[in-house]
Amino acid sequence: xxxxxxxxxxxxxxxxxxxxxxxxxxxxxxxxxxxxxxxxxxxxxxxxxxxxxxxxxxxxxxxxxxxxxxxxxxxxxxxxxxxxxxxxxxxxxxxxxxxxxxxxxxxxxxxxxxxxxxxxxxxxxxxxxxxxxxxxxxxxxxxxxxxxxxxxxxxxxxxxxxxxxxxxxxxxxxxxxxxxxxxxxxxxxxxxxxxxxxxxxxxxxxxxxxxxxxxxxxxxxxxxxxxxxxxxxxxxxxxxxxxxxxxxxxxxxxxxxxxxxxxxxxxxxxxxxxxxxxxxxxxxxxxxxxxxxxxxxxxxxxxxxxxxxxxxxxxxxxxxxxxxxxxxxxxxxxxxxxxxxxxxxxxxxxxxxxxxxxxxxxxxxxxxxxxxxxxxxxxxxxxxxxxxxxxxxxxxxxxxxxxxxxxxxxxxxxxxxxxxx
Length: 421
What we know:
twelve-stranded parallel beta sheet; LRR_dom_sf; F-box domain-containing protein; LRR_FXL15/At3g58940/PEG3-like; F-box-like_dom_sf
C-alpha cells in the first residue's frame, strides 16, 4: 500500500511542481471545436476561449481531474504525507513547499533527514543547503534518523554542527560518511559517543588517524548496531583498548580500516550481548592482537587480514565467513601463520564455515609447502562447509579436494557446497 501511495505521490508532486514552475505542456482547443456536451460540462469554456489540458506519459488530464487528484492527496493526514516524504531525497522534500500553503511548513516536521551531496552539482550549494535545513527545521521535533553522505571534503565546522544537532535532537539512527581535510586540533564531536538515544551508528570518516580518535569507552546505553570505518581506538592507561564493554545492548559490530593509537597493542572486544561481529583490515603495518570476550557471539566475518585472535569460549558460534588476502609476496608467511592460528581458535565451535576464493588460494599455498597443511585444525562441530571458487584462482579440482580433506578430518558427514562465482 505504501509503495502505491509513494508512486502516486511522486507522480502528483512532479505534475504540480512542473505546473508551478511553468513547465506544463498545453494543448489549446478552440471553442468552436468542442462539442455542445463538452461546452456544458466544462465550466471553464464559459470564461475563456481555450481549454487547458496537461499531456503527460501519453495521457491527457483535464484541469478539473488534476485539481481533484491533488485535492485528494492534500486531504491525507500529515503523518501519511510525512511517511511518503521519507522516501524522497531531502532536496525533493523541501521542494514540496511550493505546492500550496498546506505544504509550505510540512517538510519541517520530517523526522528522517537524508543529506546526500549527489543530489547537487556543486558541493558549495550542498553545504549551504544543509545549513539552511538545520536552521529552518522545526527544532521542537526529535530526529529519528540523520544520514549524511558527501563526496569530497566537508567543512569541519559544518560536520561538527551536524553531529551536535543530531545529538541535541535525540537522534536514534546516525550515519556519517564523509572526508576531512587536515586541520590541527580537530576532534569528532564528543557528545556523539555519549548519546543516550542512539540505537544505530555508522561512522566512515576519511582523515588522518589523530582526527578520528574515539574515547577510550563509548557511553551508548541504547546502541544496538555499530559500524566504524577509519577510526582510531585509544586506551586510558594500559596497552589495550576496550571501547565496547559499556554498550550493553550492542548486537552487531562492524570494524574496518581502523587504527590503534600509539602504544596500544591489543583491541579487546568485550561484550556479553554481541551476536554478530565483522572485522576488516587495519591501516597499520605492524600486526596486533584481538581479544574476544563475547560469549554469545553467533556470526563472525573476517575480511582481508587474518586476525591474531584469542577468545573466550564461543559456545554459541554458528557461522564463520573468512575472506582473507595476502597482498604482497613478502607477507605470505605471516598470512599463512595468522590464518592457521585463526582456524585453530575457531575449530572447536564453528558449525558453518564459508571460505572465499582468495582464502582457498592461501590454503592451497599451504598444501604445496609440505608439512604446513597438517597444521590445519580439525573442526569437530562442523556441519556445513561452503567454498567460493573463482575460475581466476587457478586451483585444480584435486587441489580443492585436498583442502576439503584436511578441513573435514573429524567431520566426515559435513555437507560441502562448492559455489562457482
